[in-house]
Design a protein that fits this description.
The protein is an alpha+beta fold. Helix content is 51%, strand content 16%.
Amino acid sequence: MLKTVKDRELYDKIHRNPLFIDTTENEFDQLLLGCKLKIYEEADKSNYFKTPQEGLLIVLKGSAEVQIEGQDGSSVTLEFIQEDEIIGFSNFAYYLGEMARPLDKHHIDMVVAEDSICLQVPYEVIKKRMDDQNVRDYVLRKMSIRLANVYTSLGEQVRLADEYGESEPYVRRVQDFMSSPVITIHAEAETKEIAELMIKNSISSIIITDQAGKLIGIVTEKDLVERVIADGASPNGLRAKDIMTKKPHTVRVTDYYYEALTKFYKHGIKHLPVVKAGKPVGIVTFATLMTKRDRNSMNILKTIEEASFENLPVVKAAIYDVLSNLIQDEISTIHTLEIVTKFYDRLAKHCVMLAVQSLEDQGKGTPPVPFAWYQMGSGARGEQFMLTDQDHFLVYEDVSREESQYVENYFELLGNEIVVHLEQAGYTRCIGFMMASETQWRGTMAIWHERIRQWALQSTPEQILLGYNFLSFRFLYGESAVNERFITMVHGLLKKSATFIYYMAQQEKEKPIPQLQQNFLSIFRGRSKADIIDIKKHALFPLHHCLQILGVSNGIINATPLEIISALQKKKKITKDFAEEIRHAYEISLSIRISMSWEKHLRGEKISTEIELRDLRRWELNELRTTLDTVRALQSHLLSKL
């Protein structure tokens, strides 16, 4: 069979497999005559378990999943098989005559994760090899490990299902499934030492660190094969620094499951070092993620990344499904927003990417200069739990006078295209026209410099309002170098804008926070509605504005409210206890807003942020009172500092 492939590399690879390793070449060739080489493409599905006589399947190259299908048509991954591993151990009891096939009543498939080459070894061939004690020991060891993995996987799924319900795919973090402690070695280590360390610890990669323990590279089995063995290089004299992948992609311990999964797919890698403060604290492999694979995370990532202009609306529905699960499972408000913000960010960036591609497809060309695209408002603050209106702007590099008109024409088209794509995804157009399609919300670095300077000089209520919206900006798409220069420029301008900041603070002084005491109704005397408070107007906006002003005064911009609170605490501008009170007030305000708006959304009612106090339970009323007291204290703190 493989005489035609002698493709000596593949032939030798099979011969080295523990099922065949001790056979002579003639014996091996006779055994191979009863085997079949099978080629699979990515996403192929094979009901390999249909006929028990098919025996075992050795994965020579690639990887595959074994899935069992439920009555509702959904699939659960039982195990993930990588290169040199074997599929089909579940039929051994049948082969040995101990029981009828246990899988006959279930629909089980092999789903190919990447292009694969496999060797089918029928049971007749296996029987001939089982007389060898080494083969029996090998099969027993593999079956024991596989059984343990399946039990562990099923136990983990049950535990997490009990703990998180439907939200489990979204709340798991890297620290929950990384391998730790991580095996490291220095850059001067010889390749022989690396290989021995891999064998000793049964691992497929080694992290390379410098003298300070910081991550500088990674060496995998693939690196050893491609850069040493395949190149015919002598391992003597070669060191880790010669064959390692420098500056490898990494994840943080607090990153989510789906963020790590995205990096594997995006960069085509199989090992991700986990870092904390630049030092490796663990490692995640593609195989680990696949054994803990959850279909929901996979589907939503695929939905976003593969969305065309026509099916962008589908993404909104997918994210709302996630949001519904998180709310139903009572995941904390801050945690919920952190998760859905990641998805909204991916959606927004995908829309900008599609907009750039659309202009190219229309023959309008590619971006003539590097640019950066920013979100403002609730999306930038990480508070957007449902799609609202658009708030964004464009910044691009300065150009010569001769090029300026052409560059401006392109970015005018791009600004319009971005608005159209975001609208298609479910973002309504901003009624205040704070969008990159408008001249005042796009421009070169020089134009933005003058624009921000004018805002600071005029200090009118309108300019202050623009300043509040602008100061919540967050970089989402484009060249990081442009963003870094823009941040530096804004920092420099704000340092010279003490008057503007003072007027912003004075405006807050003129907006007192309501007090929920017995005389609460007197605050709203003359209103048609009694016993009503607007959580956005009376809590969230004052909190945002105070934090923004304090942040700018202390050199903190381009940050979410929680990041500003942490930065102010670190700079000792607020105490630890006060920081905790502000965080609590912020979470309560957001929690009230989200629960109210989501309930109205489910009922098909118009979304509003007004609360009827008579609908609140006593403990909710107390929480709201404490929240308003904290926002009032923050306002007083701000005014005392200016």
